[in-house]
């Protein structure tokens, strides 16, 4: 649901609705300009300009933290950091999102440009392209925006996008179509709706025809963004109408299809499908785009904030379980940035660009105090204590200058540590011919669990099954990864830093080449190490008896050497992929964001459960006495909660008289026998109105004086 | 002096007849009814099924008639009377409302008579009468040379007019009584008796083409590509081929000429492929037929495809088409998120299980009862056989209340989770009443995998009492259910 709809949906409800009277309090009369009521009109809502640094420097939108002890400079620094880093990341993401649809855009544009190649017969059929987008409807919006922008640029003619929401009937659609098509060239004024002195109806396609004739348009592109959600009869009407006009207006249709073309065709009656011919285009799947965004925004070496494995896992689970959408991932990522810089006072230290000296000027004792509260600080002290450096540990706790020194050291080593992890990530991903999904790998590495993980085991196993030629390819791949780096992750090659590994690998490679050369000479193939070790089972049938015997494999010299080589390589790799757990690093809280609970509460709200819980256990929210009764029926509860409790106990049809009697009894229990009936009735009505507002009861048509129960608890 | 009665020139009629074979009778009767010196009628109804040449013949004939006077001049009639016939065609398919039709009529007539004045709005038939009368009067006075005037209005497909007021047709039928020299031609598919509320309207029937007629018409089209043997061989093979296509495919499906022609043209390149490849020759036609028999058995060509296969892949397209139809739902099952799939399965169960059996299927305590189902006493069994009930599956999906589906969803969710991904007893209660689930339902509804019953805009889509119906079949649901680890059959009443 978009923001606009959200705000609109609340317009009907107001707190004043249930207030018997309200007092008008005129506010200060001096600020007239602010008091002026906002006009009710539709305003095109652009992006809120949060990403413009020059504006944000003037006004601080961030709050000072640590009990207002933080200085304004720090707050400003955090705010600037957020804007800087997020805009960088966002730019990277947007470039990927834009180019992800590039292929589809080009294909569709080519088709729209010359659809005649496909249709040989001229039989009044309308060219149509069916763009299969996958079931994520949210992504269609972006795609169709890009498409219409691209088509407007490259095709001579109007492009109109229709959505199911504003297509109620044929007349309305045609009106919109004509209006949108004829308004696209801003330089013309009002297009004359007259033809030969005759005023045309505003849904008459002749207007469009004269527009096409005047402008020499070659195509009129009509896009059905969410074609499934359209009323089928409406689509049929439109298609037949377009096909009837095709000799005068060069229509081309685009259909955004979320399920499949076959399903779409099944729903269309023959009369309409006879009027269409077209080509199917597939859009890149969400999962692969997501992987790429992840690599460039989270795993990228230039990203300043990294997501922890727990958070990534919960995000990915949500992607799998509920919504598959790039947008929701980007939003979650932005939220992580916002949380980090807004809520973490230490995030000023994240900023890598400013020199540590100027940073340390900003640091106040309160910051150091906060650092001493961090779990990673505790871990640091623990490790110091374990290694018997008690004095050092005490100094860290007590002496601020020593702590500052330690912070400076860890900030300097931070980049190196992250780089090491990312390099391992890249080498691992590129070493295999079928690498595991980048997100999985990232999660394992950032848990610090790569060395014992299944991924590594699989690699080592695969090495054992390699022949010398495979091994050469394998080492070459690793070497290539180290030398060339990765442009997706923005890693430069680092061959000069990992000279040892390179040298070892080169050595292995030469040996392996030599071995395979030798084996080619002797025409004795060298088996892989796994094949050598596994014992061959030999079956012999002698006189109708089966004899099983193990074959002793004989190992040649070359094979022995090869086994040694393999062992060497796997040891090298094991060593290379033994990585530090980033969560054990001191001050990892500065660059690692890892709290999944925060995210689920924000992005997966449970409105219905919240309402039900509030009604059945109001004492969790309000300060009311919990009566002695345990089943929840207590006269001290709010009246709505009392009614809700009896509502839960009732069947699917609720007798009003019974409900009222129960209610009165409970209330009178509170106030003794002197309960005012009118007062009680008023409360009863009000509580019922509340339940109706929430959508839990409805007037029943089956029985007089009964309510129908609509919602059950816990669903 | 020209006679009062004369038919239109024979030259034009014969050329029309040769253009539209097998329609001579209709052309001649229509010409008589329309020609100025024939037996002009105020209203004429042309009726017949689709693709029988009604509109095309009417249009061609009117064109011929409106150009007629020139011919009579050439004939050298001394005291020639100028006959002026004009016509205007209004296609109902392009008119959105009844009023649009009237506006179009006025516009078309204004164009036909070269009216240059202002044209007023035309909101109902009464205004149409006024406007038409004005225009025709103006035409008559401006065109002094002619003595006989006649204008023909052609309403093409008027019986399928959208939002037509009920008085439209009777009103139009009486136009001719008020405006002189006006003929109204209605082209309809199947007229109801007395639909103009006017007796004595001449009807011209365009019957569907019979087999010999179809073959005769089709023989005039020349197929591509040609056979190597030349035009004669091609023509011979083509005629026998079309006859075979008619008997095997066209006869039982649509018999109209358009679909017949398009099927024949589409099958032709594949049919003669053995000849072009040099494997067979055209002379024993039966051998060619046998070699290509799969073409005539496969009925997928009858379904118009909206995806046009690229011309290169045409040969293998048929086989491919069969395979594709099998896998068409596979995509959705894999693409939908996990909980959407579960919701789809739950909706299917809610649609096909009667609500009174829910306790049996979804209550945990009822598992003992469920086992009993197989047995049953002799008495109950005999009563069962007596009552003839139709299987729920055959009755199609029934509407269900959203709340019930949610209850079923939570029930099968536990099953799916325990068998599927969260096998380690992970307690997950986050889905209760979550916004994500509601979003998933809304998405399924807008993909039309769930169909909301009743008025589209009545009530909120998430209202618990809102009624839905599942729109996918058993095959799909079984696949989807297996992908999330649920065996849908366990929960389905039989």
Question: Short summary of the structure?
Answer:
The complex is a heterodimer of chains A (715) and B (494). With 715 residues, chain A is an alpha/beta fold. Chain A is built from 30 helices and 14 strands.
Task: Describe what you observe in this structure.
The complex is a heterodimer of chains A (715) and B (494). Chain A is α/β, with parallel strands linked by helices and 715 residues long. Among the domains of chain A are: 102-283, Rossmann fold (3-Layer(aba) Sandwich); 449-578, no CATH class; 607-709, no CATH class. Helix content of chain A is 54%, strand content 9%. Chain A has 30 helices and 14 strands. In chain A, the strands form 5 sheets. Chain A has a 5-stranded parallel β-sheet, with helices on both faces. In chain A, strand 9 (536-542) and strand 10 form a beta hairpin. The radius of gyration of chain A is 35 Å and the shape is extended. The two termini of chain A are 22 Å apart. The model of chain A is unreliable at 1-9, 31-35 and 46-57 (pLDDT under 50). Chain B is of the alpha/beta class and 494 residues long. Chain B has 3 domains: 10-206, Rossmann fold, CATH 3.40.50; 211-319, no CATH class; 330-368 and 392-421 and 429-491, Arc Repressor Mutant, subunit A (Orthogonal Bundle). Helices cover 49% and strands 10% of the residues of chain B. In chain B, the strands form 2 sheets. Chain B has a 5-stranded parallel β-sheet with strand order 2-3-4-1-5, sandwiched between helices. In chain B, helix 2 (24-34) packs across helix 3 (54-66) and helix 17 (338-352) crosses helix 24 (474-483). Chain B is flat and about 95 Å long. Chain B starts with 9 loop residues before the first helix and ends in an 11-residue tail after the last helix. At the A-B interface, helix 7, strand 4, helix 9, helix 10 and strand 7 of A face helix 5, helix 16, helix 17, helix 22 and helix 23 of B.
């Amino acid at each position: 649901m978009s923001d606009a709809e959200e705000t609109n949906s609340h317009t009907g409800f107001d707190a004043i609705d249930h207030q018997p009277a309200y007092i008008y309090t005129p506010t200060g009369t001096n600020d007239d300009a602010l008091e002026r009521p906002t006009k009710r009109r539709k305003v095109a809502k652009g992006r809120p300009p949060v990403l413009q640094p020059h504006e944000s420097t003037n006004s601080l939108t961030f709050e000072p933290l640590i009990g207002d002890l933080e200085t304004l400079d720090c707050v400003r620094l955090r705010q600037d950091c957020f804007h800087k880093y997020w805009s960088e990341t966002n730019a990277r993401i947007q470039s990927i999102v834009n180019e992800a649809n590039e292929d589809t855009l080009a294909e569709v544009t080519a088709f729209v440009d010359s659809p005649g190649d496909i249709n040989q017969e001229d039989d009044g059929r309308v060219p149509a392209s069916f763009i299969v987008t996958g079931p994520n409807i949210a992504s269609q919006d972006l795609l169709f925006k890009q498409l219409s922008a691209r088509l407007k640029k490259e095709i001579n003619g109007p492009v109109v996008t229709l959505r199911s929401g504003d297509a109620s009937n044929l007349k309305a659609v045609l009106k919109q179509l004509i209006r949108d098509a004829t308004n696209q060239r801003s330089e013309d004024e009002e297009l004359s709706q007259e033809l030969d002195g005759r005023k045309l109806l505003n849904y008459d396609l002749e207007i469009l025809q004269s527009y096409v004739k005047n402008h020499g348009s070659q195509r009129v592109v009509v896009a059905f963004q969410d074609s499934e959600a359209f009323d089928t009869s409406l689509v049929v009407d439109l298609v037949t109408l377009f096909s009837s006009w095709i000799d005068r207006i060069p229509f081309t249709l685009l259909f955004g299809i979320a399920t499949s073309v076959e399903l779409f065709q099944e729903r269309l009656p023959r009369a309409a499908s006879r009027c269409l011919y077209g080509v199917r285009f597939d859009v890149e799947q969400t999962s692969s785009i997501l992987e790429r965004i992840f690599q460039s925004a989270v795993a990228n070496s230039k990203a300043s904030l990294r997501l922890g494995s727990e958070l990534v896992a919960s995000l990915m689970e949500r992607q799998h379980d509920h919504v598959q959408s790039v947008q929701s991932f980007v939003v979650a990522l932005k939220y992580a940035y916002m949380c980090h810089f807004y809520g973490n006072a230490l995030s000023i230290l994240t900023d890598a660009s400013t020199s540590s000296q100027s940073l340390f000027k900003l640091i106040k004792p309160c910051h150091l105090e906060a650092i001493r509260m961090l779990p990673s600080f505790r871990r640091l002290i623990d490790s110091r204590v374990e290694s018997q450096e008690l004095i050092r540990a005490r100094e860290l706790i007590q002496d601020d200058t020593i702590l500052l020194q330690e912070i400076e050291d860890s900030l300097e080593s931070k980049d190196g540590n992250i780089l090491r992890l990312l390099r391992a990530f890249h080498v691992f991903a590129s070493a295999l011919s079928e690498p595991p999904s980048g997100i999985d790998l990232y999660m394992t590495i950032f848990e610090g669990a790569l060395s014992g993980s299944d991924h590594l085991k699989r690699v080592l196993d695969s090495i054992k099954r390699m022949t010398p030629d495979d091994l050469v390819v394998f080492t070459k791949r690793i070497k290539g990864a180290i030398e060339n780096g990765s442009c997706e992750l923005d890693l430069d090659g680092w061959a000069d830093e990992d000279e040892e590994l390179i040298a070892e690998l080169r050595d292995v490679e030469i040996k392996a080449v030599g071995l395979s050369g030798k084996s080619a000479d002797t025409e004795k193939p060298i088996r892989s190490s796994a094949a050598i070790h596994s014992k061959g089972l030999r079956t012999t049938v002698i006189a109708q008896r089966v004899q099983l015997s193990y074959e002793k494999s004989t190992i040649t010299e070359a094979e022995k050497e090869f086994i040694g080589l393999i062992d060497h390589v796997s040891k090298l790799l094991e060593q290379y992929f033994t990585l530090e757990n980033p969560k054990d690093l001191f001050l990892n809280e500065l660059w690692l964001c890892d709290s999944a609970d925060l995210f689920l509460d924000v992005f997966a709200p449970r409105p219905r459960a919240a309402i039900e819980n509030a009604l059945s256990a109001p004492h969790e929210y309000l300060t009311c006495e919990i009566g002695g009764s345990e089943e929840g029926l207590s006269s001290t509860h709010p009246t709505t909660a009392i009614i809700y409790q009896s509502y839960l106990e009732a069947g699917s049809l609720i007798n009003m008289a019974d409900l009222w009697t129960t209610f009165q009894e409970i209330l009178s229990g509170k106030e003794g026998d002197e309960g005012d009936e009118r007062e009680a009735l008023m409360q009863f009505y009000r509580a019922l109105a509340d339940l109706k507002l929430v959508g839990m009861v409805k007037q029943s048509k089956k029985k007089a004086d009964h309510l129908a129960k609509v919602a059950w608890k816990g669903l | 002096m020209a006679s009062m009665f004369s038919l239109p020139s024979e030259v034009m009629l014969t050329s029309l007849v040769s253009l539209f074979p097998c329609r001579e009778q209709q052309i001649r009767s229509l010409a008589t009814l329309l020609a100025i010196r024939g037996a002009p009628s105020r209203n004429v109804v042309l009726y017949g099924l689709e693709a029988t040449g009604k509109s095309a013949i009417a249009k061609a004939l009117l064109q011929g008639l409106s150009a007629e006077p020139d011919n009579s001049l050439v004939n050298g009639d001394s005291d020639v009377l100028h006959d002026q016939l004009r016509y205007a065609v209004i296609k109902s398919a392009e008119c959105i409302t009844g009023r649009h039709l009237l506006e179009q009529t006025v516009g078309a007539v204004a164009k036909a008579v070269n009216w240059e004045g202002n044209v007023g709005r035309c909101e109902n038939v009464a205004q149409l009468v006024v406007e038409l009368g004005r225009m025709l009067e103006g035409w008559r006075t401006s065109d002094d040379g002619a003595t006989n005037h006649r204008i023909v209005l052609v309403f093409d497909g008027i019986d399928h007019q959208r939002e037509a007021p009920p008085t439209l047709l009777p009103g139009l039928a009486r136009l001719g009584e008020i405006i002189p020299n006006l003929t109204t031609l209605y082209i309809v598919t199947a007229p109801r008796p007395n639909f103009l509320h006017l007796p004595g309207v001449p009807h011209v029937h365009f019957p569907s083409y019979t087999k010999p007629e179809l073959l005769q018409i089709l023989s005039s089209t020349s197929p591509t590509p040609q056979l190597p043997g030349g035009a004669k061989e091609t023509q011979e093979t083509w005629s026998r081929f079309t006859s075979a296509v008619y008997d095997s495919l066209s006869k039982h499906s649509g018999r109209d000429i358009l679909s017949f022609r398009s099927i024949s043209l589409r099958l032709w390149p594949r049919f003669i492929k053995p000849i072009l490849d040099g494997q067979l020759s055209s002379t024993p036609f039966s051998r060619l037929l046998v070699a290509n028999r799969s073409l005539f058995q496969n009925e997928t060509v009858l379904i118009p495809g909206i995806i046009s296969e690229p011309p290169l892949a045409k040969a293998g397209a048929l086989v491919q088409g069969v395979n594709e139809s099998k896998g068409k739902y596979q995509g959705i099952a894999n693409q939908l998120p996990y909980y959407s799939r579960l919701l789809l399965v739950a909706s299917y169960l809610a649609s096909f299980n009667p609500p009174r059996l829910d306790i049996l299927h979804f209550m945990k305590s009822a598992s003992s009862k469920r086992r009993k189902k197989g047995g049953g006493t002799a008495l109950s069994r005999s009563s069962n056989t007596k009552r003839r009930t139709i299987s729920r599956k055959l009755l199609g999906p029934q509407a269900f209340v959203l709340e019930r589906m949610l209850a079923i969803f939570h029930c099968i969710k536990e099953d799916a989770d325990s068998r599927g991904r969260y096998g380690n007893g992970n307690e997950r209660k986050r889905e209760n009443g979550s916004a994500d689930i509601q979003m998933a339902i809304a998405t399924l509804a807008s993909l039309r995998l769930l169909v909301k019953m009743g008025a589209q805009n009545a009530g909120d889509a998430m209202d618990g009492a809102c009624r839905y119906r599942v729109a996918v079949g058993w095959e799909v649901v079984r696949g989807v259910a297996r992908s999330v680890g649920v065996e849908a059959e366990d929960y389905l009443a039989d």
